[in-house]
Structure formats: structure tokens, C-alpha cells
Automatic annotation (TrEMBL):
Residues 26-413 form the Glycosyl hydrolase family 13 catalytic domain. Belongs to the glycosyl hydrolase 13 family. It comes from Rhamdia quelen (South American catfish). The keyword ATP-binding does not apply. The keyword Amino-acid biosynthesis does not apply. Keywords: Calcium, Carbohydrate metabolism, Chloride, Disulfide bond, Glycosidase, Hydrolase, Metal-binding, Signal. Pfam families: Alpha-amylase, Alpha-amylase_C. This is Alpha-amylase. It comes from the Eukaryota. It catalyses: Endohydrolysis of (1->4)-alpha-D-glucosidic linkages in polysaccharides containing three or more (1->4)-alpha-linked D-glucose units. Its cofactor is chloride; Ca(2+). GO terms for biological process: carbohydrate metabolic process.
Length: 511
């Protein structure tokens, strides 16, 4: 009997770990601050044809509109209620996007902000994205409605009412994160409102959620909210599918709240992954690429089946959240290699970042412009994403997910999905290579000298097109060619001064 219950519970919880991606697609792209209209088009014209499995969208909830600073990107992490008009568009546009992306097999994952409402200093009025009235002095959010009873302040015992010490788990869960009004998710009423919001989105067709600020919510409260969620819409997902849940918990070690406290409930963001890989590619602390031979759990990360991984996210690419070692589009050469490593390696569910550019202004190591919102018109509305003739994006949208090296590695990951890591090679320094079964092989040179080696690729004999320097187009190759002999061996030469000092081949890039 006990065993049966255990099996049932285990089965139940694991069901939130599945991203439900379709057609053998494996990666998610975060289209940070994109408008719903642009995402719908991107699903159809680019993401589906190039094998992206899903999109993480910016928070769709009604949010505060701020003027000082002017329309920061982070205003969307300050909910006013659960109406669905936001900086990215109207509810009708949101619905249209979800439908169109689903119709081409690209899932939508919603960034769900349920820990809190807006900042305590948000004031009173209708400066909110759907025009709903609110009053932070009275903690009154009539559009939900939430009132003073629905917040945690009574339970918080810091002087400021904010979290002051991350070593005190009660503060972290019951006090305000950077002054954001902290919802009392122990109340069934509050849980119900959060679940209603998420269920509305599930019924519209989303495949799951990135749950914001989970460190600041009690795991038991989250379990109760998840338990109230509907199954996914059977128009696009098989009957009985539970939503995919990945929880944002920043666990770099050293705090009493850990990622593992949440991993039974759903996947968890593995922040050590990008922080460590950034350190390795930058060669800080004497790190070397060859130490990656046991990358993954061997580096103290959570079990692969619990992890959602990424090189950078919307916070740490601008100094919010964690770590100076993080690689971003600002360091494109190292960044492409790191993203390539992530996508070639079997660990975790992978998320690719897609950013907008902003004018950085460092004063004493801190970017004074870390608040700047997406490319916008003077009235504060977000600009569309124009596509240039060479397929890159214009108007300040970086579109890392369209960079050839990154997009082709997203395809590589799909081609090698489910294959074991094999044929590891390294030079005891910063040159490494490994394969995935007999379907793909990658070679990386981050040393200050050339790589010239004959390696066992495990691939069938033939001539392959490197998908980093180019790609297979028809029967031609626009990049380097690699010939694999009858024993699976191939000669690789990668100059340390190559534009991208790595090479990747897979069975679908065979000429
Ligand atoms: C804004 C203003 C605030 C203002 C507030 C209310 O910036 O000054 O008080 O409005 O008016 C985003 C922005 C915030 C913004 C907020 C609301 O980033 O700047 O506040 O919207 O508009 C913690 C949380 C984590 C959170 C992260 C940013 O645990 O959940 O802070 N991320 C999510 C979102 C994020 C969003 C929110 C949550 C809120 O992704 O975009 O905020 O919805 C330690 C802790 C971490 C903690 C960090 C930062 O990390 O471990 O849990 O993250 O500190 O406080 C080393 C350590 C590492 C440490 C890190 C600190 O690396 O190893 O553990 O240093 O840098």
C-alpha cells in the first residue's frame, strides 16, 4: 500500500518535468520582451522550421506602468492583477499567438509571477497596463480582488518589511523581495486566484510555466497551487498531460534554501550551470575546458531530469541576480562556444536567450542602465522586431536564437536527442571533443594555439558539413568539410584565430 502511494506520488510529481515539446524538438527560446504579434510570426516563419520546441514569453499579466525610471523592463514583474493586457499586447493577441505557435508545433511557456504584486511604493491610481485601479497603501487590487488580508506582512519580522538576510528562510518566504507586496499563498483564496490565472492560460493552450521567484514561496504552497492546475488543452496535447513547470530558484550554494527543495514539484533553473561554464570559457580561477569531462551532476548540479539550463538569463545578463562570470551576447565569440557546448551536451532541458541591446553605462562595475526596457517608441510602446534581408534582426533586437552557430546547434541537439555522450577526447587543456552516440560530434578549441587531431567521431563514414562555419544547403556545404573514414575517424584542424573555434557535424549534415 505504502509503495503504491509512493509510486503514485512519484508519478504525479514527475509529470510536471516534461516540456511536451513536439516533433523531436528539444530547446526553448526566451523571446524576452517580444510582442505577441512578433512571436506568432516568429513561430511560423523561423522557430518551427528551425526546430525550436517552445518559447518562454515575458509575463502576460496586467502590470504597473512606471515613469521613473522610464518604462523599465522589470515593470512586468510587478503585477496589478491577472487581466491579460501587457506591454507585449492584448489578450486577443496573446490568444492568437498561442494558437498560431501551437499550430506549428511550438509550445508557449508563460513566465508566471505569483509570489507578489507590485512594489509597496507603487502608489495609487490606474497606471497599469489594462488601466485597472490599485492602491498599494491599502494593499488594494480590486481587479483580482486582493485586499490587505491577502498579504504576508503580518508574518514578516524584519524592520524594513523586506528580506534582509537570505540565511533566514522565514524572511525569504514571508517578507518582501525588494519591497514587492508579498502574497499569502498559504491562503486557499490566494492559491485559487493564482491557479485561476494559470488555468486561463492553460485553457488557451500554453504548455507550462516558468514560475518566478520560487525561493520566496513555500514548497508546500506551490504544490497546492500546482495541484489546482488543469491538464493541458487536448486540442494540442495528449489527454492527461500536466503543465511543464520550471521554477526559478537561484541556488549558487551557501544559502539554506536550495534548489533540491523544489525539484520534486517540477524542474528547477540550474543557475550553477551558466555561472560555472562562464568561468571555464573565460579561464578564470585556472579552469580548463578539459575539466568538463564530467560536466553535469559531476560538477555538483542537480540530477539532469530536474534541470532547466541556460548560459544567461534576462537578469544575470545585466547584473541582476547572479555572477560576473556569466557570458552574454556582449562576448559573442565565447558566448557562441558556451551555447554550443550546452546544446551538444545531454544535461538538462536547454533554454536559449534572445535579448535586446541597451546602452550600458558602468560606474564602479555596476551598469547604471540595467533597467532599460525593450526597443520602444517615445510613447513607451514596444517596437516590432524587423527582420533584415540577411535574416538577422534590426532595431536593437539581438536575436541570438537566429545566429547561425546557435540555431544550428539547436538542430544538432534535436538530431542527437536521447544518444549517450561518447568518444570524449581532450588535450588536458582547453581543447575537447565528444560525440552523441553515432549521430553527432563536436570539437572545441579554446586554447591559444591550433588544434590538429585525428579523432574517433563514432559517425558513419562520409563527408560532413560543419554546421558552425556554415551548413549543408542542398548537396553543397557553405562551411568547412570533415571527412570521416570507415573506422569513424576524422582529421580536425581548428585554428585558435578562427572566427568560431569549434566544429560540429551530425548525421543530417552529411553531404
Ligand atoms: C525593482 C527595483 C527595486 C524595487 C522594486 C519594487 O529594481 O529596487 O524595490 O522594483 O519597486 C525584477 C528586477 C528587479 C525589480 C523587480 C520588480 O530584477 O530589479 O525590482 O523585477 O520590478 C532574487 C530573487 C529572484 C529574482 C532576483 C532578481 O531570489 O527570484 O532577485 N529573480 C526574479 C526575476 C526578476 C524579477 C523578480 C524575480 C521579481 O527573474 O526579473 O525582478 O519578480 C542572491 C540570492 C538570490 C537573489 C539575488 C538578488 O543571489 O541568492 O535569490 O535573487 O541575491 O537579490 C552571488 C550569490 C548569489 C546572490 C548574488 C546576488 O552571486 O552567490 O546567491 O550574488 O547578486
Amino acid at each position: 500500500m505504502k509503495l503504491l502511494i509512493l509510486v503514485a506520488l512519484f508519478g504525479l510529481s514527475l509529470s510536471y518535468h516534461n516540456p511536451h515539446t513536439k516533433h523531436g524538438r528539444t530547446s526553448i527560446v526566451h523571446l524576452f520582451e517580444w510582442r505577441w504579434k512578433d512571436i506568432a510570426e516568429e513561430c511560423e516563419r523561423y522557430l518551427a522550421p528551425n526546430g525550436y520546441g517552445g518559447v518562454q514569453i515575458s509575463p502576460p499579466n496586467e502590470h504597473i506602468i512606471l515613469s521613473d525610471p522610464w518604462r523599465p523592463w522589470w515593470q512586468r514583474y510587478q503585477p496589478i492583477g491577472y487581466n491579460l493586457c501587457s506591454r507585449s499586447g492584448t489578450e486577443a493577441e496573446l490568444k492568437d499567438m498561442i494558437t498560431r505557435c501551437n499550430n506549428v508545433g511550438v509550445n508557449i511557456y508563460v513566465d508566471a509571477v505569483i509570489n507578489h504584486m507590485c512594489g509597496a511604493g507603487g502608489g495609487e491610481g490606474k497606471h497599469s497596463s489594462c488601466g485597472s485601479y490599485f492602491n498599494t497603501h491599502a494593499k488594494d487590487f480590486p481587479s483580482v480582488p486582493f485586499s490587505a488580508w491577502d498579504f504576508n506582512d503580518g508574518k514578516c519580522n524584519t524592520g524594513s518589511g523586506d528580506i534582509e538576510n537570505y540565511n533566514d528562510i522565514y524572511q525569504v518566504r514571508d517578507c518582501r523581495l525588494v519591497s514587492l507586496l508579498d502574497l499569502a499563498l498559504e491562503k486557499d483564496y490566494v492559491r485559487g486566484k493564482a491557479a485561476d490565472f494559470m488555468n486561463k492560460l492553460i485553457d488557451m493552450g500554453v504548455a507550462g510555466f516558468r514560475v518566478d521567484a520560487c525561493k520566496h514561496m513555500w514548497p508546500g504552497d506551490l504544490a497546492a497551487v500546482y495541484g489546482k492546475l488543469n491538464n493541458l488543452n487536448t486540442k494540442w496535447f495528449s489527454a492527461g498531460s500536466r503543465p511543464f513547470i520550471y521554477q526559478e530558484v537561484i541556488d549558487l550554494g551557501g544559502e539554506p534554501i536550495t534548489a533540491s527543495q523544489y525539484s520534486d514539484l517540477g524542474r528547477v533553473t540550474e543557475f550553477k550551470y551558466g555561472a560555472k561554464l562562464g568561468t571555464v570559457f573565460r579561464k578564470w580561477n585556472n579552469e580548463k575546458l578539459y575539466y568538463l569531462s564530467n560536466w553535469g551532476e559531476g560538477w555538483g548540479f542537480m540530477p539532469s531530469g530536474n534541470a532547466l539550463v541556460f548560459i544567461d538569463n534576462h537578469d544575470n545578463q545585466r547584473g541582476h541576480g547572479a555572477g560576473g562570470s556569466i557570458l552574454t551576447f556582449w562576448d559573442p565569440r565565447l558566448y557562441k562556444m558556451a551555447v554550443g557546448m550546452m546544446l551538444a551536451h545531454p544535461y538538462g532541458v536547454t533554454r536559449v536567450m534572445s535579448s535586446f541591446r541597451w546602452d550600458r553605462n558602468f560606474v564602479n562595475g555596476k551598469d547604471q542602465n540595467d533597467w532599460i526596457g525593450p526597443p520602444s517608441y517615445s510613447d513607451g510602446t514596444t517596437k516590432p522586431v524587423p527582420i533584415n534581408p540577411d535574416t538577422t534582426c534590426g532595431d536593437g533586437w539581438v536575436c541570438e536564437h537566429r545566429w547561425r552557430q546557435i540555431r544550428n546547434m539547436v538542430i544538432f541537439r534535436n538530431v542527437v536527442n536521447g544518444e549517450a555522450l561518447v568518444n570524449w577526447w581532450d588535450n588536458k587543456s582547453n581543447q575537447i571533443a565528444f560525440g552523441r552516440g553515432s549521430r553527432g560530434f563536436i570539437v572545441i578549441n579554446n586554447d591559444d594555439w591550433n588544434l590538429e587531431e585525428t579523432l574517433n567521431t563514432g559517425l558513419p563514414s562520409g563527408t560532413y558539413c560543419d554546421v558552425i562555419s556554415g551548413q549543408k544547403e542542398g548537396n553543397a556545404c557553405t562551411g568547412k568539410q570533415v571527412s570521416v573514414d570507415g573506422n569513424g575517424r576524422a582529421y580536425f584542424k581548428i585554428s585558435n584565430s578562427d572566427e568560431d573555434p569549434f566544429v560540429a557535424i551530425h548525421v543530417e549534415s552529411k553531404l
